[in-house]
Design brief:
The structure is a homotetramer of 455-residue chains.
Chain A (H helix, E strand, L loop, with lengths): L5 E8 L2 E7 L16 E9 L2 H8 L14 E8 L11 E4 L9 H4 L11 E4 L6 E4 L28 E4 L2 H4 L1 E2 L3 H6 L1 H4 L5 H10 L15 E4 L3 H12 L5 E5 L2 H7 L5 E4 L6 H9 L4 E6 L19 H9 E9 L12 H4 L3 E3 L1 H5 L4 E4 L5 H12 L6 H5 L1 E4 L4 H9 L5 E4 L38
Parallel strand pairs in A: 10-11, 10-13, 11-12, 13-14, 14-16, 17-18
Antiparallel strand pairs in A: 1-2, 3-4, 3-8, 3-18, 4-5, 5-9, 6-7
Helix pairs in contact in A: 6-7, 6-13
Pfam family, one (chains A, B, C, D): ADH_N
Family (chains A, B, C, D): Belongs to the zinc-containing alcohol dehydrogenase family.
Cofactor (chains A, B, C, D): Zn(2+)
Chain lengths: 455, 455, 455, 455
């Protein structure tokens, strides 16, 4: 096999991402150690994620020069000497969390908090060093403070090739290559947003994951791709009333034909009134935040950022005895106005929440806990609504900078990069395959902060 | 309100059920105690269950004169003085298990093993007295041995009216009368077979009910109404490969258009070969027995009863680390030839099973644990496949004896009795609304024992 | 049986409780409805709770004239006509939560959020009306806004007699009267603080309660009676490092002989340094707040109230992937200085917490979920450390006002009121049976707010 | 480091084990493949297990020449190139299950059913080839049928040195070498019998492990070392009535001072009468089989083998709604008289069990799921009763053949082999350190089959 370098999407500053070329990856850890447990993948599909937008906008601070991307599907093209169960030509999904498979947390399927793969990091905003029990591709916050266990600095995967460590442990192998390529439009979601959305349902109930959802009601904040995946997961799990709230009508419109109730936050009607109309109550059994950073406020605060808007809404709209999940990303936000929000502090109505006896969860998804089951569900046609809800379109590496821009403006597509032209023609291609006018997809010009665009 | 007696289906002996008339029920317990916590229902729909067939055939011994039926939906027409949250005119589903709501087990939602509602009973076969921690309408095995806590002797509900004790605790109220009547064909399943089928999925994982089924495989024995509900539950819970095995092709045919794989046991192909064709393995993650008593054997034993056929198959076809559920009813069987089976003993390949580390559950469903969520799922249109899979038809009281006969012969309908003519015309009515010839629905003449006919 | 009125502890204003006499209770709901499901208890023991201190200090606002007490053990002396399984002379523990046993939440053992027993209430601070899905004796916030389902206004139980509704459902019957009186000093804790403490361990893991704690570490804030019960529960569940932090050395001293590590917050050492000394890490797998309202700050803020001190500490000291519980009571606090805290708002380091993937729970305990198992553990001598840790002493009704005072000052006793002189002499009696000087038990004079005194 | 061969206990036929010398182990898999993920351990302690006795007696058929032992604790003396988190000199516990850490089951902590480490095996009795999803040291049933994924043939560990594959994943590192050696007498139990005993409590509730046991009752069959560990686990988990049944009074006597109720099966009293005396009921919430193969019957069958005696007793004595676990080993038994038992078939009273709604589990323990927590519990002194209950004594390699003999006869010791003389003098040493006469420990001469001797 020949290759001439590795193109990777690279962060150059706020609202400035470019495609730069790097050398071909090696079976080596970021800290220089040999990685006999690793493989090299040729990327088949690699998606732009809502959490990439936090970086793009500048609210999640990273160093200039960082390579991006953490949602990868690829083909094994090189195999380390201690890889036993993967082979050349296997098609695999990469969980966005890097896990070592050897620490206490990984053994307990908590790859969201692997104890070894990131270690001590320098945080760009504060310049502080902090120990971080987790790692992800394309989230190389700062140069890792090297120690024997530290391997931080995972390259991004929006590009041609990727090194994946602890490959036997980390990778999800698709059982049949042909069937995988037939459903690549859905399977590409397994690296992050579909399991991440699923985690919204499972997290508060861990380890009894996910709890008895049949017939229960769920209120979802955010109709971006993760929020839409959340609605799809609610369908898969047999939820009763499934309600999604957002400011972006084009995104909500993707959900309505599939048994999902929507709340258009532009309509001036209070959320509790919508809930009463839909469920007869002003609360939902489960409320999930798929927005995270960069949320607008509600009602009269709709045109300005209100950092705790969704966090507060979770506790306000959850039923007595219900559960909440915060799946959207929160971090110290250098763009915030108040000192509190600059460091990631949040204010909530804690006393009003306490009396309700809620159970709450927050944080990243342990992708590996969910991706196998979701793969089987896709391969057995259990989620026919996933394709129309997600509205995936395939783009080239050259289209990536423009795709970041329109995605941040609220485009109702899920953008999947196809660096090697692997995805066949019956899947929509291009930045706007439905030829929606910008007006049609309601760009957020002048409203840089948007609920639904976040994730 | 006027009424002239209470017609009830009554067991008169093997293959002999008749409609007899009794006096109107009172707010009184079977042991004569006042029941201020009870209500009287006017029955809207009351189904014939596969477990009624065990009685009908004689394999589940009951005394002649016992009134039958435990799957009731009705309207509240009389309310006891200590009923607070139910009112005249409410439409409710009756869980087939009677629960007191006041014992340790009921408080823990284990209404399948209520400690007070049955107590000591005289068993008809052995003539022995045994303490039984459970109770159900229409399963009045023998005269209860009266004690302070004993209230056994619950009347059957295939008829005009029914007394329901502990009504605030037991009854599931439908939130809207009009919506309930619109979906009565599906909601009538909530009194037993839909929650019972669901229990097949939840039982081994209790109390973390029901476990993470997304994408997993399940093998179901029995395509009778409960087995078909099991397939529907697997759909609702997002299972991957869903496989139903039976001898009755007309019942299997109801499932095939809805993403269910079927195994026709008449075809001479080994079950493991079918499994390998469908899933690539010879086992399934979960295997459920919806048959119980009266099972035929497999392969060369297809034409004779083999009491442990399905019990053994659960352990044979379950994956290493998988789970099994025995939902079908087992009891001492006076029709069995061997002394072992006459008293309900079973032989299984225990050593072969042990090495697989299975988790197993058996017994009745605690209906109340599941009926609320399933009601919401139906009301929110999450189970559009339920109606075509179940193939429900509505009959009159006069048609009941013939319905027992054709149901026992393998008719591919679910029979719902409508004693007061409450169910409107757009629902199929009659014993054979599709005008299937007997040949068409493969009657079991000469083969009195059938896998699929059991439940 | 004769009786001349019912003495009850009554709130007359901040730091002013008195014993007033009322008429004997009847089998009637607070809204006047008949209660055939109720019993009358003659109180054997009724404890002063840390949450009573919030009321006593004025931080939890209630109307003057409210009767107090929610931790009762008693003897059945009158039985309603729809009570079946309790009898005259039974000795029972009263869960502090009132539950109806008939709503969705009670059926799911969530008696902390019973949907019927409180309903709409007028809150004293704001004067607002709010629907509250829970109820408790002695927390009659304001006159209930009467509706068909509303029964708020439950009398306090620090006194001679108490009406308990839905008695078959609510009451825990001790199996043997003699054995119960022998262990009354421990069993009296079953009405609230022992199950409440246990809930700190079970709440984040519900319904898989309580998760696998063997060998894990737990950090407990508050060495008041609930916090000490929490340490006892950690012992019972096999936790490894069990660490309790407080400002009150006399309370900590009760724990040290029983395998509990303590952090004396007066010593000027940072909590993380204590944790590193004890566990080798700066975090614990589980962190529990048994303090609630009225918390002091840490370090340089030790002498002033810092409302979010413990709430923030939960997230700061929990491990990556760990769990937190907020068992201590939070409510709008009229004594708070800031507008935020006056309405119960809290600020936390949400971004720092998010990256840790915590699971969090808050709210009251569903006492009934735990009291039966804990009763059996006590009766089987599984908690020999409970008596010395709790340091219970028995007082008369006349001693109650002084007991509130010294308990609020930090007395290291658990005060149990014995209105009828039922508790025999081998149990310590009196306000200070160990003859500790006030100096010895470190009264909080001049430091009205205390971590450990809260619960 | 120097070494002159590797002494290992070797099976030479029924009741004939010897110490043979082999070459030093290498970092190579049994099928000859390189094992860069492996380490070599110098054994510190390696125990004789009850399941070794099944082999010794001949009821679990293995080939002559098989090396024995699966309960090892050791020091790392050689490290493969892909081992990252273990170092020379680390003291580690070896889970008896070999797991790859890379298959679906290992990722879900189901190392009892690892899909890769054993593969196809030739079974000695039947001569059949079967795929086995699990592996263990010292259970090399027959020459593996080699395939790409097959690595069966794990050497036994009763000897000087051991190769452990996938070492980062498999090994439990003790945090402090000195503390480990101080508690080696308890920590040596972590390789098998303590986690295995714990599994009896967790298995039926997986993945919500282990369920809420506080105050519940448990009936344990078998007072051998595993059964005694089961009693210790019940203490650790806060169970109420803990009841152990056996025929060997010396073993029962070890339990009685520690709050455990015992049933001496020699006393002619029915088990249900014992249960009623202890708990007031004839059943227990949980019933566990720590015996497995080689069980005697009960009552009049006490002097002969009754293969299904304990299996049947689980279902007979479990409460309505209770759980059972079969932890003792079952396999095809060439010594059985009946054809059924020769192939491992079992007959149980299935109908009587069904009505009780039991949940049942069987099979090996996934050691890794429990050993970390149990290690912490030991290191934090949470199980002071473990040492006296187990009655461990340390022996030399030379004493091994005699130890097998007296252990099979019912000796009330747990035998720990110390091949290198690592265990210091304050731990009891020798075959009979308490100088019990044979009469004293009730040898089973003439009664070759014994309940309590099994495990």
């Amino acid at each position: 096999m020949t290759h001439n370098g590795n193109r990777l999407v690279t962060f150059h500053g706020r609202e400035d991402v470019r495609v730069d070329t790097y050398k071909f990856p090696e079976l080596t850890m970021p800290n220089g150690k040999n990685a006999p447990h690793a493989v090299i993948l040729k990327i088949i599909s690699t998606n732009i994620c809502g959490s990439d937008l936090h970086i793009y906008r500048g609210s999640f601070a990273v160093p200039s020069g960082m390579t991006m991307g953490h949602e990868m599907t690829g083909e094994v093209v090189e195999v380390g000497s201690d890889v036993e169960f993967l082979h050349m030509g296997d098609i695999v999904s990469v969980p966005f969390n890097v896990g070592c498979g050897r620490c206490y947390n990984c053994k307990h399927m908590r790859t969201d908090v692997c104890q070894y793969v990131n270690g001590d990091q320098i945080f760009p905003i504060a310049g502080t060093t902090q120990h971080v029990d987790c790692g992800a591709y394309g989230f190389n916050l700062g140069p890792p403070v090297r120690s024997v266990n530290t391997a931080a600095g995972w390259a991004g995967g929006q590009g041609d090739y990727l090194m994946v460590p602890y490959a036997d442990f980390n990778l999800l192998r698709f059982p049949d290559r042909h069937a995988a390529m037939e459903k690549i439009r859905d399977l590409t979601l397994l690296s992050d947003i579909l399991p991440t959305a699923f985690h919204g349902f499972a997290a508060p109930d861990w380890p009894a994951m996910p709890s008895f959802g049949v017939g229960r009601s769920v209120l979802i904040f955010g109709a971006g791709p993760v929020g839409r995946c959340g609605a799809a997961c609610a369908r898969l799990l047999g939820y009763g009333a499934i309600i999604v709230a957002d400011y972006l009508p084009d995104r909500l419109a993707l959900l309505e034909p599939h048994g999902i109730e929507t709340i258009d936050l532009n309509d001036g009607v209070a959320i509790e009134d919508h809930l009463r109309r839909i469920t007869g109550r002003e609360t939902a059994d489960r409320v999930i935040d798929y927005v995270g950073l960069d949320s607008r406020g509600f009602g009269s605060d709709a045109d300005r950022p209100v950092e705790n808007a969704v966090t507060s809404a979770l506790l306000k709209y959850v039923s007595f005895g219900g559960t909440t999940s915060t799946v959207g990303v929160y971090c110290a936000n250098p763009l915030a106005e108040s000192a509190d929000y600059k460091k990631g502090s949040m204010t909530t109505e804690w006393a009003d929440a306490w009396i309700k006896s809620p159970r709450m969860a927050a944080g990243q998804s342990p992708t590996m806990s969910y991706n196998h089951g979701l793969m089987e569900a896709i391969l057995h046609d259990r989620m026919p609504y996933l394709t129309p809800m997600l509205n995936t379109t395939v783009i080239t590496m050259d289209e990536v900078p423009e795709a970041y821009k329109v995605f941040a403006e609220g485009s109702p597509y899920k953008y999947v990069i196809d660096p090697h032209g692997s995805v066949k023609g019956d899947v929509p291609h291009g930045l706007n395959p439905g030829n929606l006018s910008k007006e049609r997809f309601t760009p957020l010009a002048g409203k840089p902060i948007a609920l639904g665009s976040a994730s």
